[in-house]
Design a protein that fits this description.
The complex is a heterotrimer of chains A (430), B (337) and C (175). Helix content of chain B is 46%, strand content 17%. Chain B is built from 14 helices and ten strands. In chain B, strands 1, 2, 3, 4, 7, 8, 9 and 10 form an eight-stranded mixed sheet that branches. In chain B, helix 3 runs antiparallel to helix 12 and helix 8 crosses helix 13. Chain B is globular and about 60 Å long. The chains are: A mainly alpha (430), B alpha/beta (337), C mainly alpha (175). At the A-C interface, helix 1, helix 2, helix 3, helix 4 and helix 7 of A face helix 1, helix 2, helix 3, helix 4 and helix 5 of C. The structure holds sodium ion (2 copies). One sodium ion binds next to helix 6 and helix 8 of chain A. One sodium ion (NA) binds next to loops of chain A.
Chain lengths: 430, 337, 175
Amino acid sequence: MELAIIGLLFLGTLLVLYGLGVPVAVAMGVTVITVMASPYGPSFNYTLISNQLLFGLNSFTLLAIPFYLLLGRLMNRSGFTEDIFEFANSVVGSVRGGIGYVNVLASLIFSGMSGLALADAAGLGRVEYSVMREYDYDKDVALGITGGSAIIGPIIPPSVPIIIYGVLAGESINALFLAGIIPGFLLAVTLLLSVAIVTRIRGYGATGTFDPRRVLETFGTAAIALVIPVLIIGGILSGLFTATEAGAITVVYITISGMVFGDLTISKIVAETRDAAVETFSLTFIIAIAAAYGLVALELRLPMMLVDAITGVTTDPTYMLLLLVALFLVVGTFMETVAAITVLVPVLVPVIDIAGIDPIHFGIVMVLTLMIGLLTPPLGIILFVLEQVTDASLEEVMRAIVPYYVPLLIVLLIIVFVPETTTYIPYEFL
Amino acid sequence: TGNGGNGSGNGGNGGNGGSDGTESGSQDGSSGGSNEELDITLASTYEEGHINVQAAKMFRDRIEDESDGAITVEVASGGSYGSEAEITDLASQNVVGMHSGAGVPFSMYAPEYYIIDMPFVMEDADHLFEVVESEKFAPAYDLLIEEGNQRQLGGRFYRGQRYFTANESVSHPDDVQGMQFRSPPLEPWVQIWSEIGVEPTSVALDELFSALQQGVVDAAEGDIEQIHSFNYPEVQDYLSATRHAPFSGAMYMNESLYQSLSESHQTLVNEVAAEVAEEANEMGMQREQELIDDLVDQGMTLVEDVDRQAFRDRARPAVNALFEDRWAGTWEEWRNV
Amino acid sequence: MEIDQSLGIKRQTTFDTIVLVGTVGMFATLIVLASSQVLVRNLNLPISLPWTEPTSRYLLIVATYFGAAVASRNDEHVRMSYLLEKLERRAPRVTRWVDVINTTVVVAFVGFIAYGTLLSMSANWNSDIGGIGFLTSGYVYLGIALGLGSMLVYELLGLRTAVDRIRTANPDQEG
Ligand code: NA
Ligand code: NA
């Protein structure tokens, strides 16, 4: 009974405030105050939240976030994003359904530079969608492939959600980054298969002829951008630098080459820095308040109660993971990714520890599941972005995405049942 | 059994309705008398198995036993409440009732007395304990109460010396000149080590392993527990017995909570904490040698023959300057306590 | 094809300029500090910058709350606006009231944590935070308090706008 009331206070207050459109951070904070003020909560404390405003953010690893947010923006602004698209198009654009494959491959390449799915959907997504429409692809196909492939971004390193998971779970960011490589490629492969199937059903033709000179030409312009994933993943793999350092170096690299070879000007750099600052700090603001939310949950021993509840159902790691995936799918549909990670990770780390689930494996499963949540109504942010950057309505976007849940969920299940898909590379190479 | 323990803990919490809990009991001033019931959160940033956590658990078992269940303790280890600095702050703000850690409360609330964890300041473990038990150090404990709203319970216990690690044998300050060295990000540490001649570099602790692996830094240092748990043997060949800072731990209690205890319970927690500290102290002494042996088994070469006097002499100008600008007393005074 | 990813950050008053320039300045400093640390280390330059690590950590903390103020000014906080937008189409008058309630909640919350921050600031004015000599946690809390103060100003202005919208709304239009 008491557990039910506490649970209701914790989630109910939060959800009502979400629904009203109160900012995520404030909704969490007000929930903390409500719980503290209730007779069931810990004693009322004015400084509990302010303490977390400082200590919740006192981590050097969080500094990777500004780098990768700025990097995605500079890529889009300097024209390199389109260069990547042109290159992918020159390579596979000539086969049947070619532009669909281009859509997936361009996202795969871009994901090696961007830390957020939104950077893909908002930047590359706009280009991909309009080119597909120009070649007379159906609206739903163009929307579906663009949206589905946008979530490859945060699985392939670098990734902002993975950084946040690593910070909160106390796991190595380098290992987590490497763990995402195979799942990212699995996503790309299943989406390419989906394109093949759709091409067959709708009977799409080729969109150009293959010209080796054109491939070389576009490779020449795209090479500057293509270096970046090699720099980031190679640098981490070879132990040359850490994930945070890789972010710093690529920002310096793209700024210089963008000014020399691209369309980057000082005023554009200033504008992108300004916008990246606002984006960064709205995320870290949530992280700080979510730390207070986690602290109050801890004071009420919610994590321990949850451990009891879950271990009461099953102690088998795989089934427990499936149970948690179901939880993330539900949470991911109404909670913003960063907010979900910051609230759940501190609570769940003791659970997976007891169950013997590998924390690296768990992190990738969690991020992928929450990414699928980004495509799910009502709060699936990618849906809103696609509505914004295309001529489609929100209803059209939502309907178009539905068939692409199938390949995404298949990949999710493969990763849940085969932990080696995530753990092989980091354990073999680090 | 762990689950059962959690279950009963929750029940206890529910029975109290939270209003007799750790912190509100003190704020409301509602508790007191001999039939008080208390549920204390005892936090530690260290992992299960660490000497600070072992001490915490010993304290829990004994206090629950000897108070006949009137006082229950929940040990929250592994940093669920955050870093040591964060936990110390939470203790000052009545969020956690007790914590078990190193010297961070002194660094925050009595910085002029935070000489205890500093490199090349204490002669050895014996000297450290003479210092912390001396009349001259007593104001530090008062500052903890006045500035940090928390008190040390029982004595301090030995956690082991700090050692220097590198890929070459280090036995004299001349051996470390110009080395890229990972120092804890504390200003006095950086000043003292710079004086000795290394190049202190800032690397976050969780990135230290890969930094050593790729040669971003050549050398590091740490207490044996840290060197052991961060797998230094995989990336460093030599363990030099510089023994530059004897580390100690202690348990701390929120002052408002302490004042809300009945007199008999105050006596009880003090007695139990003192007993536990003494035992932890012996465990610490023993454990240090065991962990060194294990590191040697893992392939590290122990350099026992270190000219520690040469290191101390080299450090001296920086240490003296720190005593002049920052710390209470002089080096001479503390050496003669 | 021009990619439009601009947030359209507003800068109309001197106060806007101070908060925005402060935020972006801190952000840029963060980037420069962390990059230079990496470069110094990887290029094996004969200097060491051990103070950059704590400095960039504390800068990120303080900048967050100035950034939150800029987000308040430009309505860039992460929030679920979907239900509200649906409501907007059906019952604009109700939406205006919900707006007022929301902003009041935000104002009350920011006021609460700003007050808590002031308490933490005075309790920790002399508490050494480690890393940088003169810096105490009290100073960091002061930085946080200033950021939250700016956020409070913007939220109060937002509340006034929201209330004005109710007062000036023409009831005839909605029947
Ligand atoms: Na795509
Ligand atoms: Na990515």
